[in-house]
Amino acid sequence: MNDAEPNNSGSIDILIDECVKASRLLGGDQSLVLHGGGNTSVKAPFLDITGAVIDALYVKGSGWDLASIEAPGFAPLPLQRMHALLELEQLSDADMMRELSAARLDPVAPQPSVEALLHAYLPHQSVLHSHADLILTLTNLRDGDSLVREVFGDRVIYVPYVMPGFELAREVKRRWETEGNSSIIGMVLMNHGLFTFAETAEVAYANHIGLIGEVETYLASVPASEREAAAAVPHICATELAKLRHQLSEVAGRPMILSRDTSPETLSFVGRNDLADVAGRGPVTPDHVIRTKRTPMIGQDISAYATDYRGYFDENKDRAASPVTMLDPAPRVVLDPSIGMLTAGIQAKDAAIANDIYRHTMAVISTCEDRLGGWVPLSADHLFDVEYWDLEQAKLRLSGPPPSMAGQIGVVTGSASGIGKACAAALLDRGAAVIGMDIADDVELAFDGPAWCGIKVDITDADAHREALATGIDRFGGVDIVVMAAGIFGASTPIGDLEADDWRRVMSVNVDAVAEALRQLHPILVLSPVGGRVAMIGSKNVSAPGAGAAAYSASKAALTQLARVAAIEWAADGIRVNTVHPDAVFDTGLWTDDLLASRAEKYGLTVDGYKRRNLLQTEVTTAVVGEAVALLCSDSFAATTGAQIPIDGGNERTI
Known about the structure:
alpha/beta, L-fuculose-1-phosphate Aldolase, Rossmann fold, 4 domains, seven-stranded mixed sheet, seven-stranded parallel sheet
């Protein structure tokens, strides 16, 4: 082996920046890298605190995503130490990771990639590794090795599947010693992916894209098969999805998000006559098994799937070097022609990741099976090794324990602004997924991320609300939490001047729409795996009404009574219903700076003093109300229903 000779004349920062750029190019293309997959490196000098120059490998650290990686995401390791480790005949996973961790030249750098030794061995300055769909297509075939050689000739080294880590690095070392030469620009690892390398990141990336392009050219010469026509989007009742989520959550041992996909590509795949056969063979690469399980569930028999998974575990558990505990046996992907595809996760982002991965999996399977002679993934025993490999599970543990409301799903009305938006924010902060409903145009963009589903809807339109609810349940699988925050004040008018239409409009939004929403939500809440929780946003006006607010005060009083009756009726279903009564919440659109100033002047107070005009002399903000509502909907109040809680800083009129 020829030791790498880093370009000491070049700037270390420039070399790392070039690696960052190439990494992001790879990571930004989901056909090359998905959700934390792949790794990259550059060999460059490391200047230690004494000024000594150490030949080093900067390799992607665990927990970093190639699409967004920055310079601190690369762990510097001494090349001499890496080469010494590769001379060992054996090295356990635990010992390897301990040695890599201890060898870091910067102790605050992330833990190095499990592929660090492989990167260190290759005698090139820049090394890039992806799980490109087209490469995985070639390597999941019965004669994949022959096809790799046919497409690439002698410009790549073919490496049969070997478990990632020390053994793979040693296998690459053995093959490079006999096959490596200056014309080699890459390695194809069966069922794993592609490595390319060069003296610059730019050329390594060009080699990467070039080789993948050659596969694309080859496939263009292979006759395309007749693709199954996508069926019409099947209708499924929201309660059926909620029931399936309930069953899946029971098997998983925790509430789960369940997201539905009915894209044309998905419906075409689930409509295959051989669906159970091809989908049941395994994933395109072992790395995906921690996100999708070994196989999807075909149909809706979760109990049978769990039984099969337990059998798979029992059959393979003795392969592990030390005793292993079975992971939950719930599926992460569900395929059913009457539904489409469902993907499950502890949080919405996990379900989204499983969806992304399996959409790519379906495309690879279809190409292999329909155009290249048959889909042949790794055997179950190899997949078990990776699924129960502690180094693979460590990727999931990097994010820490799930938030307190992970897997739970809330519906929040009036969520584009004010108290409703604050309630949605508090639930999202605790890890819940939220279906936000509001008549405002900007509700869809009120929050970012996969856990938010904002839907513009007039909640006084029962049919529109039903459709919005179905959309939200398609997105997340059910409902556990309901926060009824939508409301209007109406015209401030004495009863003698109150118009009937004004009265009815306030009642329609504040009471009638809520009663209808509860009627629609009840069968979904009954199926909550954690027990339904409902929070009504009442008002101080229920117990202390003011002049000119007849419609508003009466509507909130009626809302409170509705909540009390629901608490009585729904307790047997395990659903809690409580009401909060905020007052003097001034950080909403109703209160302008001028209005606050005029009110404060009327009472001879500063604006800040006016905001704190309560017994505790505290400011009541929308965030304060949102936090209280989220807490009320948490397990901390599992024994509370039918309660009315003031959030007003203390008011003599209500006390």
